[in-house]
Design brief:
Blueprint (H helix, E strand, L loop, with lengths): L1 E4 L1 H14 L4 H17 L8 E2 L8 E6 L2 E8 L2 E9 L5
Parallel strand pairs: 1-5
Antiparallel strand pairs: 2-3, 3-4, 4-5
Helix pairs in contact: 1-2
Length: 91
């Protein structure tokens, strides 16, 4: 399976980095790296995440990478990262 990111998911990564970078640039870089690696793991284990039933017509799932929730969708041969955010954020 191949990995794709939606524009919103990429914006989420940028937002998280911009929030953390002024306080701790090294940690901000590490968090983004860990999130990207977590998403890349989905190409090998695409169904590892919990399926979200409210998206009954689509195969939308979620995993937690550290303190971050990553939502993704399985589409044919693609894993599409939809959104990501810190678990404490109100979503």
């Amino acid at each position: 399976m191949s990995l794709r990111w939606t524009r919103k998911a990429l914006q989420d990564l940028e937002r998280l980095y911009a929030f953390m970078e002024p306080v701790n640039p090294v940690r901000a870089h590490t968090i983004v790296e860990v999130l990207i690696k977590g998403a890349e793991r989905l190409t090998e284990l695409p169904r590892i995440g919990e399926r979200l039933r409210r998206y009954s017509r689509r195969e939308v799932r979620r995993i937690f990478v550290g303190d971050y929730e990553l939502r993704y969708e399985l589409r044919d041969t693609d894993v599409v990262v939809l959104r990501l955010w810190h678990a404490r954020e109100d979503r």
